[in-house]
Write a structure and sequence with these properties.
With 170 residues, the protein is of the alpha+beta class. 44% of the residues lie in helices and 17% in strands. It has a single domain (18-168), classed as Trafficking protein particle complex subunit 3 (Muramoyl-pentapeptide Carboxypeptidase, domain 2, 2-Layer Sandwich). The chain contains five helices and four strands. The chain has a four-stranded antiparallel beta sheet, with helices on one face. α3 (47-69) packs across α5 (129-143). The protein is globular and about 45 Å long. It binds zinc ion (ZN). Residues 117, 126-128, 151, 154-155, 162 line the site of zinc ion.
């Protein structure tokens, strides 16, 4: 179980609140909110701390997402298949599994057309710290162990896909 203090109800009753507009909004608005929050965190706390906060927020979101959306929890293969479906259905991104090493608890996944960085200008950075946390949160919640995720390729680094290495914290 998650230690999160987050309550799903905090997000409100969308059906009731947006009977005409529904549950989807333009991705630019999502990015505008995310990037403006990130810019303010960087301005106030510096880049490293801002990334840490985004990672930790992602970690909590991943745990909550697992509880809320993942139905197939019997084993990791089923989980990953279910996760792939849910991420497409919710228009989060296209997940592909590149490497599964159960013995060493190491995994590599990619996400194409992701919410946060696809289409951004190329820079020296990998920027998806929220997504790193999000993926680590899902793996941690599923296994009951602490997992970490590191983005090694990003749209912004020119890869046109985000690639994450996931492993159990030693
Ligand atoms: Zn990325």
């Amino acid at each position: 179980m998650t230690n999160s203090t987050f309550e799903w109800a905090e997000l409100g009753d969308i059906k009731r609140g947006r009977p005409n507009l529904g549950s989807y909004a333009d991705i630019h608005v999502y990015r505008l909110m995310q990037f403006s929050i990130k810019n303010m965190l960087i301005k106030n706390f510096g880049r490293i701390k801002a990334d840490e906060i985004f990672y930790e927020a992602g970690l909590e979101a991943g745990r909550v997402f697992y509880e809320r959306f993942i139905e197939k929890k019997d084993n990791l293969t089923e989980l990953l298949k279910d996760l792939e479906l849910k991420l497409i259905r919710l228009k989060v991104g296209i997940l592909r599994i590149e490497e599964v090493d159960i013995e060493n608890s190491k995994f590599i996944v990619t996400i194409e057309e992701d919410l946060d960085c696809s289409g951004l200008p190329v820079s020296d950075d990998v920027i998806c710290s929220f997504d790193e946390g999000f993926i680590a949160g899902i793996f941690s919640e599923h296994t009951g162990s602490e997992f970490q995720a590191k983005e090694v390729d990003c749209w912004c680094s020119g890869a046109r896909v985000c690639r994450f290495v996931i492993n159990e914290k030693s």
